[in-house]
């Protein structure tokens, strides 16, 4: 049908949309801004005073916790204004909080420490520590003692088992399940519906393909690409990842 002569052609004004969204030009919140969002604080203990312990302490502070003390093998100089006490001192005290987190990088050592704490203090409560700049979906589950550092992403329906450690910028995709004491090193990625067994370690920038299952006590080397299932106690490296040897239960890898 011909357009009527007296009907002007409608002109559509294209609205420009910046793909970066409405926050373009706004500066990211600084540490002071993050602290202001947490009004109340809870005093906790951090078991581990090494590099990872410092990362967890900084994350805990930004998440609204107050570090009452660090716990290490032996007492030494304070860190971040908090005392570093020996395990013997801590377990002999009745004044310290009965809540905290185990910040030890080695998965098997972290598990043994948790068991020792439970034996000494059955009422001890393990807290979850999540950095304010981590992205955690509402439907994701983080069980007791879990730690999620800055820039990490935990997508919908993902499950982090007890005392899992998710380092800086690591990604746990939708419906992935990580068993207890799993560690994802900085930049590691697990695709959707993956399954990672107890005490397994995924190295720097390593990735695990969609739906792949990794057994217990597996170590995956840095920058490896896992595209097939890995049996328990495997050490796998490369892209694609290949098993190079078997481990012993509790063997140190750090």
Folded structure, characterized:
This protein is an alpha/beta fold and 254 residues long. Helix content is 15%, strand content 28%. It is built from 4 helices and 25 strands. The chain has helices at residues 31-36, 51-62, 87-92, 107-120; strands at residues 42-47, 65-72, 76-79, 82-86, 99-102, 125-126, 129-130, 135-136, 141-142, 147-148, 153-154, 159-160, 165-166, 171-172, 177-178, 183-184, 189-190, 195-196, 201-202, 207-208, 213-214, 219-220, 225-226, 234-237, 242-246. The longest helix has 14 residues, at 107-120. It starts with 30 loop residues before the first helix and ends in an 8-residue tail after the last strand.
**Secondary-structure-derived class:** alpha/beta
Number of helix segments? 4
Q: Low-confidence spans: pLDDT under 50, at least 5 residues?
A: 1-40
Q: How many beta-strand segments?
A: 25
Under CATH, the topology of the largest domain can be stated as UDP N-Acetylglucosamine Acyltransferase, domain 1
Strand line-up in the sheet with most strands: 7-10-13-16-19-22-24-25
Radius of gyration using CA atoms only: 23 Å
Largest sheet: 8 strands, mixed
Q: How confident overall, as mean pLDDT?
A: 87
Q: What is the end-to-end distance?
A: 76 Å
Biased composition (Basic residues): 1-14
Pfam family, one: PglD_N
Binding site for substrate: 105
GO molecular function: transferase activity
